[in-house]
Design goal:
161 residues, alpha/beta, Rossmann fold, 5-stranded parallel beta sheet, 7 helices, 16% strand
């Protein structure tokens, strides 16, 4: 029996853009429907841009959307159906915990990672109660941990209904 040498979904999404295929837009709406989608919800535009660039460097074939408020995020989620969301806990208006609860009620298969500078036990408990999958501290972001989490999602995607 020959070994299966076909690349896995995780291998394809970790590939450099030139390995993905000709004419495929890695960051934009023109990309193929089967590509993974991520959203970054963060009101600090500087942090949001740096995070987006670093994430795109690690996962060049992801389609990445961004939002600066919870309201903007909810509008975009309906249209793009992200596979995962990186969500700031402190947002103008509705906070990230309330937003996570709303997202999970309407889109239970979306994976959510909370981003925060405030590592409080009460925030972690509330986030867990509202269905947040991971909790990352901004000032000590470990990209290897983020990569492990994303790869675990690629290896075990949830069915979408």
């Amino acid at each position: 029996m020959k070994p299966n040498l076909a690349p896995s979904k995780a291998d394809k999404l970790l590939a450099k853009p030139s390995q993905v295929g000709p004419g495929v837009s890695c960051v934009g709406l023109g990309a193929r429907r089967n590509m993974m989608r991520a959203m970054i919800v963060e009101d600090n535009s500087y942090f949001r841009e740096i995070f987006k660039m670093a994430f795109h460097h690690k996962f060049p074939s992801f389609i990445i959307e961004e939002a600066g408020t919870g309201e903007e995020a909810l509008q975009k989620i309906s249209g793009m159906s992200p596979d995962l969301i990186f969500l700031d806990i402190l947002l103008p208006g509705e906070d990230g915990l309330q937003l996570a609860q709303k997202i999970k009620m309407d889109f239970p298969n979306i994976r959510i990672a909370m981003l925060t500078n405030y590592d409080l036990p009460t925030s972690r408990r509330t986030a867990s109660k509202f269905g947040v999958d991971r909790f990352f501290i901004k000032d000590s972001l470990n990209w290897e941990e983020i990569k492990e989490w994303v790869v675990s999602i690629l290896d075990n995607p949830r069915k979408k209904f």
